């Protein structure tokens, strides 16, 4: 059995309530809610794989409005005791997956301005979201394989929240098509 995870129910609107071979988990937005909900789920049930779907802002202009496999995540909203952005005091700077794909920068705020993007881009990420680092970190603590698929909903620039609201349903359909193709469900 696999666990299908999304931060928001709106990211799953294109998915049937019952997807064969998958349980479903909506965690709520942000790293704390993602950590709490996924920890509870993995503590309660042994899953063969966690499959995360959701939206992300593109901060790399080369990334089109498509679905991307995530290969690594970092936190863009932490600073260590030496003032280094992206470095946490006790967590690894990056969590890696075996998949080929894009690096995502996770933070607890919705990125929607050019100044924030200018700070995040040098960290080496192509996408931004609010949960992926937490999902990967938790799944790895439990030793459960995890796969993360993100659909680009916006450009993380001024007005991105308006773009996200307009795009989330289309992104859900893109993600549903990818899950159908990859898992035959």
UniProtKB/TrEMBL annotation:
Q: Which residues form the Nucleoside phosphorylase domain?
A: 26-178
Pfam families xref list: PNP_UDP_1
Entry-linked SUPFAM superfamilies = Purine and uridine phosphorylases
| Organism superkingdom | Bacteria
Which PANTHER family is this protein grouped with? 5'-METHYLTHIOADENOSINE/S-ADENOSYLHOMOCYSTEINE NUCLEOSIDASE, 5'-METHYLTHIOADENOSINE_S-ADENOSYLHOMOCYSTEINE NUCLEOSIDASE
Tell me the protein's name. Nucleoside phosphorylase
């Amino acid at each position: 059995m696999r666990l299908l995870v999304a931060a928001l129910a709106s990211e799953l609107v294109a998915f049937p309530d019952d997807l064969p071979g998958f349980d479903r988990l909506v965690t709520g937005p942000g790293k704390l809610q993602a950590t709490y909900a996924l920890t509870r789920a993995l503590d309660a049930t042994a899953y063969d794989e966690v499959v995360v779907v959701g939206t992300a802002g593109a901060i790399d202009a080369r990334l089109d409005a498509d679905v991307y496999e995530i290969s690594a995540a970092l936190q863009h909203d932490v600073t260590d005791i030496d003032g280094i952005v992206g470095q946490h005091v006790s967590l690894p700077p990056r969590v890696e997956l075996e998949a080929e794909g894009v690096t995502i920068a996770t933070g607890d705020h919705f990125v929607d301005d050019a100044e924030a993007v200018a700070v995040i881009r040098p960290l080496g990420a192509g996408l931004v979201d609010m949960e992926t680092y937490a999902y990967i970190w938790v799944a790895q603590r439990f030793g459960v394989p995890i796969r993360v698929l993100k659909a680009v909903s916006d450009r993380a620039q001024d007005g991105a929240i308006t773009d996200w609201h307009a795009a989330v349903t289309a992104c859900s359909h893109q993600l549903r098509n990818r899950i159908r193709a990859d898992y035959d469900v």
